[in-house]
Amino acid sequence: MTPKQPAGKVAGSLVSPAQNTWCPGCGNFSIQHMMKSAIAELSEEEGIPLENFVLLGGIGCHGKLVDYLNINSFYGIHGRSIPAATGMRLANPDLKVICHVGDGDIYAEGLDHLIFAAKRNSDITVIVHDNRVYGLTTGQYTPTSPTGFKGRSTPGGITEHPINPLEVMLAAGATHIARGYTRKVQHLKDLFKEAIVHRGFSFVDVLQICATYFNLTDYYNEHAYEVQEGEVDTGRFESALSKIREWDYDREAPIPLGTFYSVEKPIYEEKFRALTAGRPERRALVRKALEEWR
Hints:
Order of helices and strands: HHEHEHEHHEHEHEHEHEHH
Strand order of the largest sheet: 2-1-3-4-6-5-8-7
CATH class: Alpha Beta
Strand content: 15-25%
CATH architecture: 3-Layer(aba) Sandwich
Number of helices: 12
Radius of gyration: 20 Å
Number of domains: 1
Distance between the termini: 53 Å
Shape: globular
Number of strands: 8
Largest sheet: 8 strands, mixed
């Protein structure tokens, strides 16, 4: 990108011609536009070629984002986009791999993959479109739905307590943990940029509404606030945990937004390469195995 190509112009070129089918008022629009802007700005500021960004999507309304942005992309099956993301990053260390997932997609079917990616400190970014409901399948509850949630499959309300995904990620070993809200778009874009440039596993849970099946706009507007500098020591586990536990995705409480934890640790891709250094070239191993089985 040259100085004559401002980030705004490039951001506009990243919109694909695909017809958008999200419901009017969906929080996914904010995520799409801020992701587009974040990629364009990082390309300019950090000198990252646009072709080095890769977007992955799972199954759900969130997954359509990879159709709507003109960026290299890949669709994973339900809950399984993270294995593809870690494989891409292992195969090509130049890539910035950004995995867009939904709360039902990744906190249910995909939770095992999410935990292991965090545990390994895979150098990927995971953006969770957390509307706390299965929107594409018309309103079933997810692991972050609040107690008492009434949906198509639970008309009497659920008795379960939701998980706190940020606490799960902190316990699993994620090295960068943040939460945003789709009505605070500039803040959300900054969180995206920070997560993408972080070296290691970065995780952003984005609170958004489902305009059709679970519209929490008034609730979030009343309770969400941006964490100010000095409120949390992002390098200390205990400080991050304390701030993360201010809201448990269920009770009436202030909802902190921002980066809660960010530390540098060796990444999985480097440890993997060190583990395999000095071994025979892969094709030679395959040929040897084929010869043995003839």
